[in-house]
Amino acid sequence: MHPNPARCPLSWKQCFSRLSSFATLVEIIFLGTSSGVPTRSRNVSSIALRLPQRAEVWLFDCGEGTQHQLLRSDIRSSQIRRIFVTHMHGDHTFGLMGLIASCGMAGAAQPLDIYGPPDLEPYLKASARYSRMDIFSRVRVHAVAPGLVYEDQEFTVTCDKLTHKIPAHGYRVAERDKSGRFQVEAAKALGIPPGPLYGQLKQGKTVTLDDGRQIRGTELCEPPERGRQFVYCTDTVFCDAAVSLAQDADVLVHEATFAHQDAQMAFDRLHSTSTMAAQVALLANVRQLIMTHFSPRYAPGNAITLDDLLAEARAIFPNTLMAHDFLSYAIPRHRADQPEPAPVA
């Protein structure tokens, strides 16, 4: 709301449209952006995905200290419904048991579904056994393989195998396409009375009016609205699977552990450089690249800093951002009246 409504340049209708748009955003919140170990300013890997019009959050990876990061954000642990784990390295998994335990102590009633490599379930079972925790009455673990991982009426989640030293998977979250908006004023102009007929026309059906006219719903609906696509690729060296998984995505979050100058280390350790991440984004025709999972070697004051990694990536793919802890990025719906997304510090 404008601080002085009398001077607000927007009409009430425009204000309502703006406010409504925030309720329909898919929001990405970075909870950890360092690789290997935490630093004073960056925790290890975890991303939260806030879904529109649901009191529900999905996590992607859960490095040590993720629950502390949640406490510093506006996300409640009770909102977490699903966790998608890319691979079993500790900087992506060591926060799981602490978060699961805290959710249980907080009395979270809803089940928690966790998806990841086949080794994930025995790891959690061993941790639960030796810590005397009963978690499997509310935690369900699903081993993933390339293809469909999860689906509901609004979203699908698929994965593909990346190229790393141990099995690792990238994830793609795809919102299902929405029917085009029904043009109420056009229907009224045709003399169609409000009521059940509107519902049929919204579904694209053809209806017959009392005067014998046949009205096709498709002619009164705007074109279908393409669903939003979010892709998360880490840990991996450059690979074709990442390009395929990220094809035409709205947002690609891709690891950029190393600078281009350190490409040999990236190949040796099967991680990506900033230029590799940018090449994936370019080849996949994504709208926005956000780099994450940075080596602590590029801290301020060193010969190469993260500003250099960002410049390297933007030379290949200009629409690149560098994540930092608690960066929030909103993906709006594909509508003409929707504002462009903007990162929030």
Number of domains: 2
Find the count of extended strands (DSSP E, 2+ residues): 17
CATH T-level topology of the largest domain: Metallo-beta-lactamase, Chain A
Poorly predicted sequence stretches spanning 5 or more consecutive residues = 12-22
Query: So, CATH architecture of the largest domain?
Result: 4-Layer Sandwich
Average pLDDT works out at 89
Which overall shape is indicated by the principal axes computed on the Cα atoms? globular
Task: Give the quaternary arrangement of the chains.
Answer: single chain
Percent of residues in beta strands: 15-25%
* SSE succession: HEEEHEHHEHEEEEHHEEEHEHHEHEEE
- Taking the alpha carbons of the first and last residues, their distance comes to 20 Å
Order of strands across the widest beta sheet? 6-5-4-3-2-1-16-17
How many whole angstroms does the radius of gyration measure? 23 Å
